[in-house]
Amino acid sequence: MAVTDFLAASDIALAINACKAKDSFSPKMFFKTVGLSKKNPTEIKRIFTILDQDKSGFIEQDELQLFLQNFSKGARPLTAAETRGFLLQGDSDGDGKIGLEEFSALVKSS
């Protein structure tokens, strides 16, 4: 399963290009640009499953740092500041990781 099974390659390219500069990544803008915010709960769960590389049921800090590379192999890693910001926006219960419900809520708020 790949993100291109659910999202258009052209939308992914636009979103990746929009955040090429360091410290320019915004999760909500990215989700909106790739079209994820328009997807149904099942599709959002499938994307979450792809992003949860270690299959722990959560997206942890190390997985967030490599977030863009899940969408495009040549994409840059997120900076420490972007990773912290992403975690702060998505981790509503303060456990240091983003679960499916938190991810879905963040996507839908974009």
From TrEMBL:
Keywords from the named record: Calcium, Metal-binding, Muscle protein, Repeat
Biological source species: Eleginops maclovinus
Family: Belongs to the parvalbumin family.
Residues annotated for Ca(2+) 2 binding in this entry: 91, 93, 95, 97, 102
InterPro entries named among the record's database cross-references: EF-hand-dom_pair (IPR011992), EF_Hand_1_Ca_BS (IPR018247), EF_hand_dom (IPR002048), Parvalbumin (IPR008080)
Residues in EF-hand domain copies: 39-74, 91-110
Domain of life: Eukaryota
Keyword flag Transmembrane: no
Function as written in the Swiss-Prot or TrEMBL entry: In muscle, parvalbumin is thought to be involved in relaxation after contraction. It binds two calcium ions.
Pfam family membership, one: EF-hand_7
Protein name: Parvalbumin
Gene3D superfamilies in the record: EF-hand
A GO cellular-component term linked to this record: cytoplasm
One of the record's GO molecular function terms: calcium ion binding
Keyword NADP listed: no
Matches recorded under SMART domains: EFh
